[in-house]
Write a structure and sequence with these properties.
By secondary structure, the chain is α/β, with parallel strands linked by helices. The protein contains eleven helices and 15 strands. The strands form two sheets. It has an eight-stranded mixed sheet. A seven-stranded mixed sheet has the order 11-10-9-12-13-15-14, sandwiched between helices. 46% of the residues are buried. It binds S-adenosylmethionine (SAM). The site of S-adenosylmethionine (SAM) has 22 residues, from helix 7.
Amino acid sequence: MTTEILFSAADRYYRYAVQELKRSLPVVDHVAVGEDAGLIRLDGAGLAEVAAAARSGDLRFVRHLAEVTAHRPAADADDPAMIIDLAASAVPADGPIALQVWASGRSRHRPEAVRAAIADRLAADGREVRRAGCETVLAVCLGERRIVVGRARTADALADWPGGRVRLADSPHQISRAEHKLEELFSLLPLTIAGDALDLGASPGGWCRILLEYGARRVHGVDPGEPAPALARRPELSWHRTTAGEFIRRTQRTFQVIVNDMRMDPLQSVRTMITAARLQRPGDLIIITLKITTNRPVETIDRALENLADSYKIIFARQLHHNRNEVTVVGRRR
Ligand SMILES: C[S@@+](CC[C@H](N)C(=O)[O-])C[C@H]1O[C@@H](n2cnc3c(N)ncnc32)[C@H](O)[C@@H]1O
């Protein structure tokens, strides 16, 4: 029996999402829906298997998933009434529904207008419609090539946002845009941050601020650059104006959390983490962004994770919405 799955990825890394899907799952067919969304047909596997592969770290470039209930060529879907009918026929039997509509590539439809029309129809049928926070997601992708309607248990969708495009509000205390990467990760993977944290490549200090906000007792920021003035004033921050290698060689401290957002070749960045492993105890946490390019990123990440595996058990590896040319990796000290 075959099942069709709708998936999203970053547009620049879409083909690598397809590459990883094909090597991990029984994919018999693939078609692009738009620049950052596609359909795969699986023989003998379904959404649960794809979601499990993503959670296990095998699919680093897939951001969002749903099981397809219907799709049509975009050229045949000029009339929004047809999209509304497709969506209405995909609604599960009961319970509130998170209705998520997005466009992939150039679509003649405006997602908010289509969403409002579908929500009106479902409300008229007596259904409770929300944006997020339900057991089931009704996903409508207005692709440049195809209109796709799908459904997912929220846990299997991987992210409770239309197409996985997580939108986070800017805080007035924000130090850098990089903060959103860590906030997005914490929204997808609940992690307990406690004790002392080490932030490698910390300047100007956005990640230091977020770590303190999420419960770190003290943060040691390491960077040849400077911290933002508002952060430098905080008593729970220690700043070390040096390189990661130099700091790791000299310190005698231990850290429950080590984060690394260094702009550095990914294999060199991993080597740095391996030398830092002596500063941690079993179960302690690392969070790294591996900087990649569109040249063989799957192979690069494979090697990086393989090298890390002796010291760390990888619990998450994915390109987040706020990651541009990078992948976020989380591990626990063995
Ligand atoms: C993307 S920025 C970090 C942004 C930071 N996470 C934030 O939230 O504000 C990357 C940083 O890595 C630092 N970096 C690069 N190589 C480094 C090294 N060998 N040791 C320490 N820091 C390094 C750079 O100086 C730069 O400030």
